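Posting this for the archive.
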Amino acid sequence: MDVRDLRNCLGSFATGVTVVTWSEDDEVKKGITVNSFTSVSLDPPLILVSIDKNAKAYESLKNKSFIVNILSSGQEAIAWQFAGREQQGLTIEWEESEYGPKIKGALATIECSPWKEYDGGDHVLFLGEVKNYTYQEDDGLVFFKGKFRQTKAIENYVTD
């Protein structure tokens, strides 16, 4: 199977863009850009993030509380920064919580304690138990066919 072509096919599914953050030794803030994120369960409240086993974050995130920061449309530079492309002059504003550092201005934040980890081939599936969350009404950042794009808020949507 042509892995690059499969990746192109999978890229046809638009995803939200998140940065998963955690603290190392309660002082050092760590993070990784992730678009493999999904809700799993409401009872108990569980979410899942998928991390490549070759990523530095893989070992660092094991057995740690973490925050899923769902990025707003104006936070593309933050997505690039945590994807390993340094953004000159970027200042990230943080908010602290019991479960780790949150990115200020994120569209939503989901604070999690570690639940379970599962082997997922070349990735590890980290399940987190949702302990707290916040969200705001705004446009989000999405990833589609290899590019960042912005959502447009739908207002006054009415179904018949």
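The radius of gyration is 16 Å. The chain is about 15% helix and 50% strand.
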